[in-house]
Amino acid sequence: VLILFLFVACFIKLVSRGPVLFVQERIGYRGKPFRMLKFRSMRVNAEPDMPQPQVDTLIKCSQPRHQWDFPAGQRLIAGGRLLRAFGLDELPQLINVLKGEMSIVGPRPCTGGEFNSFEPWHQERCHALPGLTGLWQVRGKNPTTFEEMIKLDIHYALHQSLRLDFLILLQTL
């Protein structure tokens, strides 16, 4: 894993100026903020978050969304699409796992803006450590609605088990 870390870090430095890591505050277990790490796949100063009005619309929208993020377009560095496609940009989150801020399996950690727009029942998804992969990721991800995603995350939080984690990991692969 360390060799892969070094390879990706060197690749990012070769194709782009700026830091290798992207650090962003996310909301974790029981609503506690933490600093999530990722390899930077976007250009420096590219806006990483969805604008708050779009977040609010997404949360209220009952239509399936084929992409939860706004189009990356020119925001990605050379090779950034590949880093994301193979999940290599998320390798540094293993450090968050080692620190106890994340788990391998669990709901994806949301941003503070998303969390602040949640209805109280949405926050039940934070009754589990956020994870690198989760039930939502293996059960549809992009074609689901926001409410379906929240229900999958809450289902996971209420039914956590080694068996469920193992099944999710198998489906992730």
Chart the SSEs and their pairings.
Blueprint: H1 2-15, E1 21-27, E2 33-39, H2 52-60, H3 80-85, H4 93-98, E3 103-105, E4 110-111, H5 112-117, E5 131-133, H6 135-138, H7 146-158, H8 162-172
Parallel strand pairs: 3-5
Antiparallel strand pairs: 1-2, 1-4
Could you walk me through the main structural features you see in this protein, from its secondary elements to its overall organization?
The chain is an alpha+beta fold and 173 residues long. 40% of the residues lie in helices and 13% in strands. It is built from 8 helices and 5 strands, in the order αββαααββαβααα. The chain has helices at residues 2-15, 52-60, 80-85, 93-98, 112-117, 135-138, 146-158, 162-172; strands at 21-27, 33-39, 103-105, 110-111, 131-133. The strands form 2 sheets. The protein has a 3-stranded antiparallel sheet with strand order 2-1-4. It has a two-stranded parallel ribbon with strand order 3-5. β1 and β2 form a beta hairpin. It is globular and about 45 Å long. The mean pLDDT is 89.
